[in-house]
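Customer ticket, subject: "Can you confirm the structure for ABC transporter permease?"

Message body: Hello, I'm evaluating your service for our small team and ran a test protein. I'd like someone to confirm that this is what the system normally returns, since I don't have a reference to compare against.
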Amino acid sequence: MANTTLEAGSATMFRPGTSDTEIEASALKAMRRRKTLVRFWQIAILVFVIGMWELSSNMQWIDPFFYSSPSGVVQRLYEWATEGTTEGSLWYNLWVTMEEALIGFFAGSITGVFVGIGLGRNRFLSDIFSVYIKAINSIPRVVLAPIFIMIMGLGLPSKVALAFIMVFFVVFANAFQGVREADRNMIANARILGASDWQVTRTVVIPSAMSWIFASLHVSFGFAIIGAIVGEFVGARFGIGQLISIAKGTFDAAGMFAAILLVMVVTLFAEYIMTLIENRLAKWRPQQHLDTQ
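Agent reply: Thanks for trying us out. I re-ran your input and got the following:
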């Protein structure tokens, strides 16, 4: 039995003697109601923005030549999907960009996690390599694109290298900091119980750093896409970045927005998949309740 107060948009008072089951059911109902309200406003804002964009273009409040319109963007996507682009099939160009981004993402993520955990657990090595990591990290990523293309050519390797660099430092920094933020008391207790360095790393440090690592993975795929597209924009034969470059050169605003829309959809889908994986691998974490204030 309990006597408590829950907030879910507005305060809900419970009578003395209200059962825990009733309180839990009310809390779940409030959370579902709040989730529905959030989804409604997300859709409403999207519809309003698209509607205002279309209206402004039709009423000449903005110049359609430079800003296009939602209907023009959809039409360009339909033309690309059914008739292809000047650089071949839309789906082939999309696959080229995704292949570059995926290879760079997985290679950069895996390397960043291992290097971040390794240096985070070894203070001596981290002190040695920290100055070099900071020096390389200070270089703007986009200026590396022409260097990689000059060295590796216009094909896949140069775009993968740029995507790798974009992802590596994000994941490395979070993994390194996550290891350093591990609970020292838990590490000390594990050592008292006779755990080896590897056992401490595997059972205490890595689980403690998982939240940091997944936080970086949520944004790093977007960086991988950026790396691939920037590389294609600088020089490529195929890819979404090449389509954007061609649209820019021909003042095709609808084509530019259509390519950007494709990238947004793919990135959001990847974020959704990443969330599913995180929820499955991190079942041990306590469920986080929504902040309803």
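A couple of notes from the result: DSSP finds eleven helices and two strands in the chain. The longest helix spans residues 20-58. Feel free to reply with more questions.
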